[in-house]
Amino acid sequence: MIRIRDLALTYPEANAPAVRGVSLDIAEGAFYTLLGPSGCGKTTTLRCVAGLERPDAGEIIIGDETVFSAADGIFVPPHARNIGMVFQSYAIWPHMTVFDNVAFPLRYHRPRPSRSEARDRVMAALALVRLDKLAGRPAPNLSGGQQQRLALARALVAEPRVLLLDEPLSNLDAKLREDMRLELRDLVRRLRVTTLFVTHEQIEALTMSDVIAVMKDGAIVQEGAPAEVYGQPAESFVADFIGRTNLLSGQVMTPAVSTDGGLGSVATPVGLLHCRLDASRRVGDVVTLAVRPEHIALSLGAADATDPNVVAGEVATVAYLGNLIECTVAIGSHALRVQLHPSAPVAPGARVRLALPIEYCLAMRQ
Known about the structure:
- The chain is α+β, with helices and mostly antiparallel strands.
- The chain has eight helices and 21 strands.
- The radius of gyration is 25 Å and the shape is globular.
């Protein structure tokens, strides 16, 4: 449904490209997320798809239509791309009612619907987001969550072939954001509208997406299903950005024997650890070893020197977070973060041993 090839854009007087060589394919009906920190190029990429920015190079195809091609001099303006967009600020018109806000895009839709058809489409869009009973209310009198749903109804009323979402949940409080994640994902699934979503929130990306593309410095560094990106990060930036993780610099001591990767060993500041290792890594290569806090098993007592991937340490900090306990364990001059069940009997100063399961230790390029 959306195909982007070698997209590039540098803003005037900028020191580096905002987007450099971005290529991606979004299947029809898919929920595709661009995830990354501020300034990574995700919103610029979205704005290029919307036609709000004109790239320097590349190609953008929506459906069967090329809406931008630098080589062929094609640039279809935003209003002719048949897209719906929800901005971070919602962009609600305060002088209009809820009904009029949603009806506004239909004034410029071609062919323009009749008055009765427009009313039916507006009420249907409001019903989708459960605002049909508030159609006559002034838009500023809505709560934050209701304004977010209003912006979504306005984006959907013209039945766009693509829905573009620019961090639409960032202005909501934590509990409402959690509720709206579920509502938005369910609505998109029911409508089967192709969606390109931009966010810097890892939880939003993991819970809502069919595919995640992690961006850094204007480029995509990894793309895949949420479980793949979380469980098999391609580099230390991805591992550190998505969720919490422990990163240890190390040196390959034993390479993987299989041509498609396997198990090897890496010397780290906390000891020699067996781990999953790419087959391209050789003895002596410097790598970063990642292991998630939830995968580390903690038990009281000293470690047996013969146990593989078991290290001894001392609990430095304990933080109760309600649904879990997060603690840091000092191992020499280094510390590992561990997540435990909230009933775990652990206290600062306790001597403990940590078991790092081999299957959850991943060595990657730095």
